[in-house]
């Protein structure tokens, strides 16, 4: 059985960066390990042994890594502020491969914006995400609904949806990272317009 220690998630686990896991385990595809949850990108300063939540995170992650590969093969996540991409680069970029599939949904870009950005040989698809969840956005992007995978377990669903995402991958307007970041808008309050 594939264990986290034999995958690219091992270092993140050791640094206590894997948070709020709704799934963490083998996906059912031989040699693959999946993670759904958050990656801590920037920790708050801690005093003594108190536990504080991270300053900010890559959230709602859907990801899989192959045993022994040393890289995360497919990664999808949500950044509440595009400016967090700098911290993402430091923490996560070394774990990504040029041939991988990577989607980042961002709160503060135009709702019609769709970019392809290359950073150090790794290609990212950058898409807006406002009221929805990453899981729903990915399903919509792939043209899936839950009947397509309802008989699968949590790991199987994750692998199925991410495999479909690789097939559905598109290229959008190509921008440099600095150009894409310069188009960021003010961060929207996530709790605005929410019923109390």
Q: How would you describe this protein?
A:
- The chain has 196 residues and is of the alpha/beta class.
- It has one domain.
- Helix content is 21%, strand content 33%.
- It has five helices and eight strands.
- An eight-stranded mixed beta sheet has the order 1-2-3-4-5-7-6-8.
- β1 (18-26) and β2 (32-42) form a beta hairpin.
- α3 packs across α4 (154-168).
- The longest helix has 15 residues, at 154-168.
- The protein is globular.
- The N and C termini lie far apart (45 Å).
Q: What can be said about this structure in brief?
A:
The protein has 196 residues and is of the alpha/beta class. The chain has helices at 10-14, 85-91, 134-142, 154-168, 177-182, and strands at 18-26, 32-42, 56-66, 72-79, 96-106, 115-119, 122-128, 173-175. The relative contact order is 0.15.
Give keywords.
196 residues; 8-stranded mixed beta sheet
Q: Which of globular, elongated, flat, extended, rod-shaped describes the shape?
A: globular
The biggest beta sheet is recorded as: 8 strands, mixed
Number of domains: 1
Number of strand elements:
8
Helix content bin? 10-25%
User: How would you write the strand order of the largest sheet?
Assistant: 1-2-3-4-5-7-6-8
How confident overall, as mean pLDDT? Answer: 92
């Amino acid at each position: 059985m594939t264990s986290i220690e034999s995958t690219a998630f091992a270092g993140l686990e050791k640094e206590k960066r894997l948070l709020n896991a709704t799934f963490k385990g083998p996906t059912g595809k031989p040699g693959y390990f999946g993670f759904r949850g958050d990656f801590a990108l920037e920790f708050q300063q801690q005093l003594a042994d108190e536990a504080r939540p991270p300053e900010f995170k890559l959230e709602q992650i859907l990801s899989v890594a192959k045993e022994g590969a040393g890289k995360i093969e497919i990664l999808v996540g949500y950044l509440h502020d595009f400016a967090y991409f700098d911290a993402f680069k430091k923490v996560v970029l070394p774990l990504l491969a040029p041939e991988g599939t990577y989607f980042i949904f961002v709160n503060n870009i135009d709702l019609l914006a769709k970019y392809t950005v290359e950073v150090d040989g790794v290609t990212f698809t950058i898409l807006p995400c406002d009221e929805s969840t990453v899981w729903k956005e990915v399903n919509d992007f792939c043209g899936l609904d839950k009947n397509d995978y309802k008989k699968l377990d949590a790991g199987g669903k994750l692998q199925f949806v991410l495999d479909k995402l690789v097939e559905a991958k598109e290229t959008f307007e190509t921008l440099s990272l600095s150009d894409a970041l310069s188009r960021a808008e003010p961060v929207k309050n996530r709790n605005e317009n929410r019923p109390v």
